[in-house]
Amino acid sequence: MKAVCWHGSNDVRVDNVPDPKILNPRDAIIRITSTAICGSDLHLYDGYIPTMQSGDILGHEFMGEVVEVGSEVKRVKVGSRVVVPFTIACGNCFFCQRDLWSLCDNTNPNAWMLEKMYGHSPSGLFGYSHMMGGYAGGQAEYARVPHADVGLLEIPEGLTDEQVLFLTDIFPTGYMAAENCNIQPGDTIAVWGCGPVGQFAIRSAFMLGAERVIAIDRFPERLQMAREAGAEIINYEEMDSGEALKEMTGGRGPDACIDAVGMEAHGTDALAIFDGIKQTFRIETDRPMVLRQAIVACRKGGTVSVPGVYGGFIDNVPIGAVVNKALTIKSGQTHVHRYLKPLLQRILNGDIDPTFVITHRLPLTEAPHGYEIFKHKRENCIKVVLKP
């Protein structure tokens, strides 16, 4: 089959690789009908996530048709049309039983790698390095899905791939980011980053009752998309976002702040430049300027929600502001399984049409071009869907 494979920093290729096979009686094989490039994939593309190996298959946002099932798969049938959560969960461990699916104890066979760094390991992830399990991803023609009865969500007739594809990651991720803000009537939510996750966080904040959402970015097409959702906007290259947020909130600050950017944030001040240098030379693993801004901008007693990916260690985080302003910080890989059915119902109800975020549709063979335009924000690219 054809698959998008990682061969080093800024080097992805569409290779011919062996078809996946059933390895465990709880597996299913999916013929992929739609897949997508995620902002998190750019961290792999840029070489900032360790334990990648040449030839690894990328991709964790994918869906398709079940073509084979293992002997112990009972709920999912051959021919079912399904979406696949990017987090892999067993359904039976302490964490799965508590609806904390991305913390599953049993799906990362390389947990020891992360235990050295984090103390404990989260769940395995599709297409996201060997420290996250080494699972082949879904930017391919076929994929093996472990624990098929636990993860796969069957899609009802009448919905297109593009309406439901983002249930695999970015819609639940944006929704969980907003839910973590504990939004109350009248609240103002600030969202740093108007990429795909930020766009879903903006719309989710409104769905959950926010009165105002303020979106912060520098790319006009992303800010325009946020404005179309009802958000007020700040272009941080044209004004100081912290001062602007103070002015827009009467000096109090937003009730909650969402960092939908993560480890490859950009900034305009000297500290941001220094972060870039430190990351380049691996003195610091992540660039945390957005996290700093969100902590400082958030009102006293507020919440900082972090759906943006951070991988390791960061410098100069204003922990004093966290403590002395009594802030709550909530984060985590998304518990996708928790949100599949509720958000599918949101789509069926017409509360949201997730296709709004798609700007580019490409065949799988053009994935390298898709990565380039997505990384460099060319052609007004916000979200790329690939068709195997």
From TrEMBL:
| Domain Alcohol dehydrogenase-like C-terminal intervals | 196-271
Q: Per the UniProt record, which EC number(s) apply here?
A: 1.1.1.-
Among PROSITE patterns, the record links this protein to: ADH_ZINC
Q: Which family does it belong to?
A: Belongs to the zinc-containing alcohol dehydrogenase family.
Protein name stated in the entry: Zinc-dependent alcohol dehydrogenase
Name any cofactors this protein relies on: Zn(2+)
Which UniProt keywords are given for this protein, alphabetically ordered? Metal-binding, Oxidoreductase, Zinc
Q: Which GO terms describe its molecular function?
A: oxidoreductase activity; zinc ion binding
Q: What InterPro entries does this protein's entry cite?
A: ADH-like_C (IPR013149), ADH-like_N (IPR013154), ADH_Zn_CS (IPR002328), GroES-like_sf (IPR011032), NAD(P)-bd_dom_sf (IPR036291)
Keyword Oxidoreductase attributed: yes
Q: Give every Alcohol dehydrogenase-like N-terminal domain span.
A: 25-150
